[in-house]
Amino acid sequence: MKSSRKSAFFPRRRPASGLTLVEVVMATAISMVPISAILVLLVGGQRSWERGYNYANRQIEIEGQAAAAIFGRVGRKSDYDNCQIYDITKSRRDLICGETVEFRYWSNKRNSFIGRDPQSSPGSSGSPTEYARFYLEEGDDEAGVLKVDYGLYPQGSRQRAARSVTIAENVTSVEFRRTRFNSIGHGSVKMKLTLTDPDDGKTITITGAALMRN
Fold first, then answer.
1. In angstroms, what CA-CA distances link 31 with 9, 39, 90, 109?
2. Percent helix, strand, coil in the chain (nearest 5)?
3. pTM to 2 decimals?
4. I need a surface site. Which of 47, 68, 112, 116 has the fewest CB within 10 A?
5. CB atoms within 10 A of CB 84
6. Three-state SS for 37?
7. 12-60 residue pLDDT tens
8. How many CA atoms lie less than 13 Å away from 3 in the CB half-sphere?
9. Domain spans in the chain, listed from the N-terminal domain onward
10. How far apart are CA 151 and CA 130, in angstroms?
């Protein structure tokens, strides 16, 4: 009788519903794993993007790309017969390489097409009127500058000095090459430009091409 009365006044305790402290800690730790992984990926991606951005926008990269654009734009004004490579470093029957290239062209765009045929353009000599010479000027240290001289052709025909423009600094080397067929140049003139970053000493190579008219 005592036991039945005791149970009537004091019912058995039921286990509390919910999570224990240990389970909460474990659940929190497990949930932090994917969050940490996402944070690592975000941080790594940000750093990679910053490295790529800084590499693509450093000064030597900008100057090298600008020099390649100028080279291509000027070269398109010329043609196969009015391009000459100087300071030869390699010469074969099918290839010629050098450190200087000169494009001769016409100041009047109309003459660039019809001026080369005097019979179709009365009064025209057919000769180019201007030139642009690309070359490397060595500096005091190992790096030099890539320059282009603009002037009248033939040189000295009129009293006006050539204009020299620097289009890239920190240039280690430059090479101009052109394919040849039966020792006659044809196709495009290619430029290979190597620049050195003065801050970290790393080098980059920029290539450009000038596709001339035949």
1. 44, 13, 65, 70
2. 30, 35, 30
3. 0.68
4. 47
5. 17
6. helix
7. 655 555 567 777 777 777 877 777 777 777 766 666 655 554 555 589 9
8. 0
9. 20-57, 59-210
10. 6
